[in-house]
Amino acid sequence: MLSRHALDALAAAGLDAAAVEELAHRTVAEDLAGGVDVTSTATIPEGLVGTAAFVPREAGVVAGIGVAMACIEAVGPVSWDLVRGDGPAAQGETVLQMTGPVRTLLTGERSALNLLCHLSGVATQTALWVAAVEGTGARIRDTRKTTPGLRALEKAAVVVGGGLNHRMALSDAALVKDNHVVAAGGVTQAFQAVRAMWPGLDVEVECDTLEQVSEVVAAGADLVLLDNMSLEDMSAAVALCKPKGVRTEASGGLTLDRARPVAETGVDFLSVGALTHSAPVLDLGLDLRLGA
């Protein structure tokens, strides 16, 4: 299941936003309490009870079960007949089943599916990258290239898929990138400026060349980001960093079919923005039957 922190983030941003989108022109509180879904209100008798199941239309890694539950419960109370944890799921396998008023089930359906399909897509995409580098010792990490308001949820889904989280926010860790280097007057100057102001913080430095790698390793960097380097240069960079205990992270130009060759250079991490910014959804649907 997604973490409490992730669910809190949903309550603070995503759930309210979903309610506003689905039930416009009223306050969120009125929408969630009243269920002003005009189609369901007109076509479904009040008090009609049904059972609904969330079912993957394709195999994948499901993430966001708790989010889907929160979306439904925001509309009204239901009974949860089956709640399985986040993780791999087969095509046609019921991952979540509930019984309650049909109006409630259908009013909450789309918001629940939107988030569940998206987060499951992130987890499934992450699992493909993790499988691609299995046995190399390299780990797959996400980035901050996330959907505004959904970062905590998307990063939680990456973990469900077997990946690791990079920093959640700019204050979590220092990452000196090329524009910081320009502003500071050089890669060593940028590194030293961060280390001087935040002596207890890990400092990762982006490098485009082997010369920069040598420079920041000598300066004392904890982690070196190898940006758009060739396989040969990445191998050489690892050879420079590993004896000093400096970790390495490959970034830029990474594709799934190139993941294993990159991992085999000896890098510790592959930084993959595609896990969150362009993961295709995992197709799930809601199957409804009348009666408890």
Overview of this protein structure:
- 45% of the residues lie in helices and 19% in strands.
- The protein is α/β, with parallel strands linked by helices.
- It has two domains: 4-124 and 280-290, Quinolinate phosphoribosyl transferase, N-terminal domain (Aldehyde Oxidoreductase, domain 3), CATH 3.90.1170; 132-277, Aldolase class I (TIM Barrel, Alpha-Beta Barrel).
- A six-stranded parallel sheet has the order 6-11-10-9-8-7. The chain has a four-stranded antiparallel sheet with strand order 3-5-1-12, with helices on one face.
- Helix 11 (259-263) links the parallel strand 10 (247-251) and strand 11.
- Helix 1 (4-22) packs across helix 4, helix 5 (102-132) packs across helix 6 (151-160) and helix 8 runs parallel beside helix 9 (210-219).
- The longest helix has 31 residues, at 102-132.
- Mean pLDDT is 88; it is low at 23-35.
Order of helices and strands: HHHEEHEEEHEHEHHEHEHEHEHE
| Strand runs, count | 12
| Strand-pairing-aware structural class | alpha/beta
* CATH topology-level fold name of the largest domain: TIM Barrel
| End-to-end C-alpha gap | 26 Å
Helix content: 40-55%
How many separate domains?
2
Please count the helical segments: 12
* Alpha-carbon Rg, integer: 23 Å
**What is the level 1 CATH name of the largest domain?**
Alpha Beta
- Strand arrangement in the largest pleated sheet: 6-11-10-9-8-7
How would you characterize the largest beta sheet?
6 strands, parallel
CATH architecture of the largest domain: Alpha-Beta Barrel
Instruction: Report the CATH superfamily of the largest domain.
Output: Aldolase class I
- Percent strand: 15-25%
Q: Which segments are poorly predicted (pLDDT under 50) over 5 or more consecutive residues?
A: 23-35
Average predicted local confidence, pLDDT: 88
Shape: elongated
